[in-house]
Amino acid sequence: MCELFAMSAREPATVNISLEEFAAHGGLRGPHGDGWGIAFYDGRAAHLIREPEPASYSDWIPFVEHHHLRGRIVISHIRRASRGAVNLANTHPFSRELGGRLHVFAHNGMLENIDASHGKALGRFRPIGDTDSELAFCALLARLTPLWLAPSPPSSADRLTVISAFARELRALGPANFLYSDGDLLFAHADRRKQRDGTLRPPGLYQLARSCSTHPHGFDAPGLKVASTATTQQVTLFASVPLTAEDWTPLEQGKIVTVQAGTVI
């Protein structure tokens, strides 16, 4: 199955060493060699890099690290193809405009018969590729459209209500771990995942929260460096599998965590 990674931070931060460890799963120490991508949010827009090649050998990985790309929200994905060819169109994360901002989505799992259940309720959104994941993203945005067409941005509670109901529908179709952001909030939904022993069971995602208030450059941990120019920083991370030796919290099946500026709300 694919692997997911996300970060929400109070101040823009880099995730270089986490990305390095994460990328090593993409064809080097893991079977996920069918493409990878990463999105760094900058306000309502995002730097988006995607490539239908193994992340472990990609020239883009050192580019991201050496250019110190920063973001308050970061979403990344490495792919093991289960539906759709290995090409750019099928590479996560996917993105679309809604309400004058870029929305980004990445999914881990397999959603059986989603074409029949959700394929006709896509509103103005259409998949470019052939994955069940992108179709699910388009269907989710169609559900969210009425909220984002209102005169003012929707409340976090209204957004969560729509996303929770949609996630519940996806879980009935198959494993539905996903990361979604509208540039303001980051939503992480945990479901089941194929574990190392071959069984399909929770946890589908892990969570880690860290803060610093004294070091001007952020904080270091084994296998993880979050760099920031801010004197105070709050960071929440999500990953399919723990990326460091720290105590990552496994998320129970069906749980959605909503994060804003590094803080769970």
Topology diagram in text:
Layout: E1 3-13, H1 16-24, E2 36-42, E3 45-51, H2 60-66, E4 71-78, E5 94-98, E6 101-108, H3 114-118, H4 132-148, H5 156-171, E7 177-181, E8 186-189, E9 193-194, E10 200-201, E11 206-212, E12 218-221, E13 224-227, E14 233-239, E15 249-250, E16 256-260, E17 263-264
Antiparallel strand pairs: 1-4, 1-14, 2-3, 2-4, 5-6, 6-7, 7-8, 8-16, 9-10, 11-14, 11-15, 12-13, 16-17
Helix pairs in contact: 4-5
Features of the shown structure:
single chain; 265 residues; alpha+beta; Glutamine Phosphoribosylpyrophosphate, subunit 1, domain 1; seven-stranded antiparallel beta sheet; 5 helices; 20% helix; globular
Structure description:
The structure is a single chain. By secondary structure, this protein is of the alpha+beta class. The chain has one domain: Aminohydrolase, N-terminal nucleophile (Ntn) domain (Glutamine Phosphoribosylpyrophosphate, subunit 1, domain 1). Helices cover about 20% and strands about 35% of the residues. It has helices spanning about 15-25, 60-65, 115-120, 130-150, 155-170; strands spanning about 5-15, 35-40, 45-50, 70-80, 95-100, 100-110, 175-180, 185-190, 195, 200, 205-210, 220, 225, 235-240, 250, 255-260, 265. Strand 7 (about 175-180) and strand 8 form a beta hairpin. The radius of gyration is 17 Å and the shape is globular.
